[in-house]
């Protein structure tokens, strides 16, 4: 009986009392609070056929945001900005069975939810860009008023 008690004591010593993990392993680190985690912001457009010149102008304006969007402190806050014209061969850019296909996609990366929120809600330079996109929606250059935005925090499901 003493041997079993001794073995149980040794086994308990090998288990981290906080995490319950074997071998005395440390408690896994919890991810940072969501507002301190990076955010990926995806913007997708559907341009009418024959409006590639307008799409290229929009792309130039979008890419300029990386250097012209700055916080009130004067520091830029868009960490990365990429994008391009669709070239997928899957033919489901508008969804399965839908022919309203996305034509252009842009991806911006922000350090935090706060930076993304400033961009979306307060940045005056981004506001000018949104107004430009609004004119494209209103004049029919963007098919079916098709602009989609999806944001996510990498690894958070």
TrEMBL record:
Q: Which InterPro entries match?
A: Dabb, Dimeric_a/b-barrel
The protein's organism comes out as Drechmeria coniospora (Nematophagous fungus)
- What does UniProt give as the signal peptide span? 1-20
Q: Show the Pfam families listed in the entry.
A: Dabb
Give the keywords, sorted: Signal
Would I find Endoplasmic reticulum among this entry's keywords?
Answer: no
Protein name stated in the entry: Stress-response A/B barrel domain-containing protein
SUPFAM superfamilies associated with the record: Dimeric alpha+beta barrel
* Entry keyword annotation includes Signal: yes
Q: Identify the taxonomic lineage of the organism of origin.
A: Eukaryota, Fungi, Dikarya, Ascomycota, Pezizomycotina
Q: Which residues form the Stress-response A/B barrel domain?
A: 39-152
């Amino acid at each position: 009986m003493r041997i079993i008690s001794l073995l149980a004591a040794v086994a308990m010593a090998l288990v981290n009392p906080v995490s319950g993990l074997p071998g005395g392993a440390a408690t896994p680190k919890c991810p940072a609070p969501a507002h301190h985690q990076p955010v990926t912001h995806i913007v997708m457009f559907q341009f009418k056929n024959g409006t590639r010149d307008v799409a290229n102008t929009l792309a130039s304006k979008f890419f300029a945001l990386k250097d012209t969007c700055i916080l009130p402190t004067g520091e830029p806050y868009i960490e990365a900005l990429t994008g391009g014209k669709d070239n997928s061969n899957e033919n489901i850019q508008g969804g399965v069975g839908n022919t309203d296909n996305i034509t252009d996609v842009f991806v911006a990366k922000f350090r935090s939810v706060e930076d993304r929120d400033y961009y979306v809600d307060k940045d005056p330079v981004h506001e000018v860009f949104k107004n430009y996109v609004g004119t494209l929606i209103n004049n029919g250059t963007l098919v079916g008023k098709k602009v989609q935005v999806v944001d996510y925090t990498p690894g958070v499901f």
